[in-house]
Amino acid sequence: RLRLTEGPGETYRLVIEGDAPFREEDVARQIWLSQNGPRPREGDKPEPVRLAVLAYVSDTELEVDLEGQYDRAAWENVAFARWGKAVQAIVGLNHLAGEQVMGNLDGVTVRGLGVDATGRVELPIWTVRAWVGYGYASHARTLPANGAEGLGSARTTTGRVVQMGMMFDAVAEGVVRRADAAEGHEVLLRPRAASDPLGMAPAASREDLLVELDSSYDTEKQIELIADGALPCSVAGLVMLVESYG
Question: Taking a C-beta distance cutoff of 8 angstroms, is the pair 158, 178 a contact?
Fold first, then answer.
């Protein structure tokens, strides 16, 4: 485990027990710490602590400083359950040299990353855990809700999808919207924060969701589901509540 202890001046010493992971090349990097473990306890501080590494002392000790505004006294001699070294670049992607890739950076999807000729990709944010590779998108669209086909005129009846009940085997991200709707009219299936420190992406859940849709009247009455990140979105079934007009 890791602890912050008082260091020279306004700095701290980061000391680890039971391991020796620190190296001289860690100087000028960041290290992120979290008090929360797999099972958070009452009184745990939810935000991660970001440390700037100032000097290498040994393989078990670094001289560090707190990045940002923290109550310095509140973090002294606190045991941390999770930690990671943050980076601003990933190397070794020679097989993707010259390509545009996407990344999942601590749980956040980032697009438009360029890999240079040496196989290096610069990251827009400090990142502890990252996955980088070609982007992909899953795009599913329902068939037109035409009602009673035998009536003939049902094909041209206007209507709109008011609600959609969705059953998921596993869902961690994705959006649902009226087919061909303008950007901004989608509904997030699993809203989440802008970042997820230390790479703890939300676990996919098996659940049923009732989605309220902002849709206008048309003749097709179709819904589309889009998942374009790196987290699962597996649909087991769905049912639509359609409001017809005319």
Answer: no
Spell out a b/e string for 142-176, using b for 16 or more CB atoms within 10 Å of the CB, else e. Answer: beebbeeeeeeebeebebbbeebebebeebbbbbb
Task: Confirm if 146 and 220 have CB atoms less than 8 A apart.
Answer: no
Nearest CA among 33, 27, 63, 60 for reference residue 46: 33
Could you give the 3-state DSSP secondary structure of residue 25? helix
CA distance 95 to 86: 24
pLDDT tens for 167-212 read: 988 887 788 888 877 776 778 876 554 445 555 556 677 888 888 8
Alpha helices for the chain (secondary structure H): 72-75
Length in residues, the chain: 246
In sequence order, the β-bridge partners of residue 32 are 50, 84
Is the pLDDT confidence value at 124 over 50? Answer: yes
d(CA 90, CA 4): 28
Got the DSSP string for 147-190? --GGGSGGGG-EEEEEEEEEEEEEESS-EEEETTPPTT--EESS
Contact indicator for 31, 64 with CB cutoff of 8 Å:
yes
Q: For residue 177, give every residue at least 6 positions away whose Cβ sits within 8 Å of its Cβ, in sequence order, or none.
A: 185, 186, 187, 213, 215, 223, 224, 226
Q: What is the rounded distance in angstroms from the CA atom of residue 9 to the CA atom of residue 72?
A: 13
